[in-house]
Amino acid sequence: MLDKLIIEFDKGLRTLAAPAMSGRPHPDAHIEECEMSDAERRHALGLMRVNHCGEVCAQALYQGQALTARTVEAREALKGAAQEEVEHLAWTEARIRELGGRPSVFNPLWYAGSLAIGVGAGLLGDKWNLGFLEETEHQVGAHLDSHLTSLPEQDARSRAIVEQMRDDELKHADMAHEMGAARLPLPVRALMKLSSKVMTGASYRV
Question: Could you tell me the residue range of the domain that residue 129 belongs to?
């Protein structure tokens, strides 16, 4: 147990403090930078900062869920999803730097809260654990779709990243559903949306 806790603590430190690495090529690797006004660039930066923050939360959430998952199958599914989220971290972090910004100062706070939620979800049992994963990914997919309508039309680099992230998130949701995820009660889903709005509003600015 001590070894496991040390490993998980190290994961947290690397998520918050170390540059993330991607096994896949960055989706925008072969797309040229575009011309944007200062206002457009600030808006794109804010959206990508929100997306990066969401990936920090995903790492903590899946980490907590994997720690308390009951079966090997559920644990491995969560770990696999988390690995793709690391790639999303790398893509969004790089794009934030290209746009002249930095990740949200609130990331450690969101990480701690998401880790606690993930542990709690896992303690409820695997069907609810997977249900939380499925609902999270559906909400994230809708959130990313809204970003695709809001990003500056000419910002093809940010769009390529967001599109690939959305496809990956929906794939995770389908995986959880196929593994027997339970449908979360409406009040829980509503609370998740409210929490996401709070995080989005704060991270967009700083």
Answer: 37-204
Nearest to 104 by CA among 16, 20, 39: 16
CB burial string 60-75: b at 16+ within 10 A, e below = bbbbbbbbbbeeeebb
Model confidence, pTM: 0.90
Q: Can you say which residues are annotated as belonging to the binding site for Fe cation?
A: 55, 85, 88, 137, 169, 172
- Residue 7: inside a domain: no
pLDDT at 50 over 80: yes
Number of separate domains in the chain: 1
Q: Indicate whether 28 belongs to any domain.
A: no
Render pLDDT for 139-163 as a digit per residue (tens, 0 to 9): 999 999 999 999 999 999 999 999 9
- As annotated, the binding site includes 55, 85, 88, 137, 169, 172
